[in-house]
């Protein structure tokens, strides 16, 4: 209470909303600045942040920009959703396809369609099984060949799971009564204050001007070109530039939303339908980047201070790794799933764990499912864990043991 009174007694010019305890996202960029300021951790921090920006964020932003531009020409509601209303089998297949779309939009559409009575329970199991959420963007941008294979596998497993569920349950299995849905469908628009709106707009401007140059430098790095030498720059110049840019993007991201509960921590920020594709790409990119930084920095700092090879340590877990990926996948939200994918990309987690996580995770789609049809969401999540267990351990025993 004393600290609260002290805060309230600050001069008015210091008591601005973005420094309230609710803006806990500021912890991330401030921590990064402290790590860079320290002589002990400066080198590992700059190198890690540079890798996160050039090798991950730049590719994710470029991939997301293309995705949002293309999705702007496609009306999912009229072009795709209407197709799967013709039969139970078609519903399941198209639901799996919608779930395979990177992000959580397709899965959220099917979830609300199930609650409103337009599709059956098999469709919601199919979409929750096939979706990877925002982790799909990260995997497709970092390892496109593996990413496409995992997405295709998700469609196959999701459709198969949905068809099996259709054979067991009726379409209205665990669907809540229509009379109980009226209040739940009345979503209040999220209030955004002036500072948050400015930060959101600056995120879009940041990536608008940096998207092409960053993608170009990232491509050079992927082809093992020494960018510092190519442009006759002092040693570590491009690394410092990447670290500075990623901290700026995290500062902007930290001021765009208050953290009030678990969902606001692990779920992507809500975007306006009318927003420019680059604006949507910027918001998604910074959300993904924040969780990538958490994974990368934790990996590097544990290795640095503890002299521990996490890749070797996790490999010692062996048979437990697919179960770890599956267990994290049961958590709602995209944040924990991005952590698992980041560990896979960095070599700390095997592909079996990534596969189990990709199939078991429901991303942000689980939040509206829990709110609108909690019993159906719980059972559908348990059902999606079964194929995740089979695929994860099947790959482990066939290729990793």
UniProtKB/TrEMBL annotation:
The chain crosses the membrane at residues 52-71, 92-115, 121-141, 148-168, 206-225, 237-255, 288-308, 320-345, 376-398. Keywords: Membrane, Transmembrane, Transmembrane helix. The keyword Methyltransferase does not apply. It holds the Pfam family ArsP_2. InterPro entries: ArsP_2 (IPR021552). The keyword RNA-binding does not apply. NCBIfam families: arsenic_eff (NF037962). This is Manganese transporter. It comes from Vibrio aquaticus.
């Amino acid at each position: 209470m004393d600290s609260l009174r002290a805060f309230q007694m600050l001069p008015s010019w210091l008591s601005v909303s973005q420094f309230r305890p609710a803006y806990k996202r500021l912890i991330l960029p401030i921590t990064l600045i402290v790590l860079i300021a320290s002589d002990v951790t400066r080198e590992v921090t700059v190198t890690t942040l540079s890798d996160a920006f050039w090798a991950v964020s730049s590719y994710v932003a470029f991939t997301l920009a293309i995705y949002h531009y293309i999705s702007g020409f496609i009306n999912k509601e009229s072009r795709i959703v209407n197709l799967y209303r013709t039969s139970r089998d078609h519903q399941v297949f198209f639901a799996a396809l919608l779930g395979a779309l990177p992000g959580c939009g397709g899965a959220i559409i099917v979830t609300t369609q199930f609650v409103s009575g337009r599709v059956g329970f098999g469709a919601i199991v199919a979409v929750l099984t096939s979706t990877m959420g925002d982790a799909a963007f990260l995997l497709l941008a970092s390892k496109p060949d593996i990413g496409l294979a995992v997405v295709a596998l998700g469609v196959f497993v999701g459709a198969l799971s949905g068809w099996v569920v259709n054979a067991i349950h009726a379409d209205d299995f665990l669907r809540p009564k229509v009379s109980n849905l009226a209040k739940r469908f009345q979503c209040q628009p999220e209030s955004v204050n002036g500072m948050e709106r400015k930060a959101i707009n600056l995120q879009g401007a940041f990536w608008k001007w940096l998207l092409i140059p960053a993608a170009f430098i990232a491509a050079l790095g992927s082809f093992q070109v020494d960018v510092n030498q190519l442009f006759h720059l002092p040693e570590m110049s491009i690394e410092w530039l990447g670290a500075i840019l990623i901290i700026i993007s995290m500062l902007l991201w930290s001021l765009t939303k208050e953290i009030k509960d678990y969902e606001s921590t692990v779920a992507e920020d809500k975007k306006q339908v009318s927003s420019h594709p680059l604006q949507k790409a910027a918001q998604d990119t910074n959300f993904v980047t924040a969780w990538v930084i958490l994974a990368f920095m934790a990996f590097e700092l544990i290795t640095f201070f503890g002299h521990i090879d996490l890749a070797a340590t996790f490999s010692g877990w062996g048979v437990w790794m697919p179960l770890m990926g599956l267990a994290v996948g049961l958590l709602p939200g995209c944040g924990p799933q991005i952590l698992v994918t980041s560990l896979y990309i960095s070599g700390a987690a095997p592909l079996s764990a990534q596969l189990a996580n990709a199939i078991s995770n429901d991303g942000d789609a689980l939040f509206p499912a829990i709110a609108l049809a909690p019993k159906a969401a719980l059972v559908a999540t348990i059902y999606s864990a079964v194929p995740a267990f089979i695929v994860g351990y099947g790959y482990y025993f066939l290729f990793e043991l």
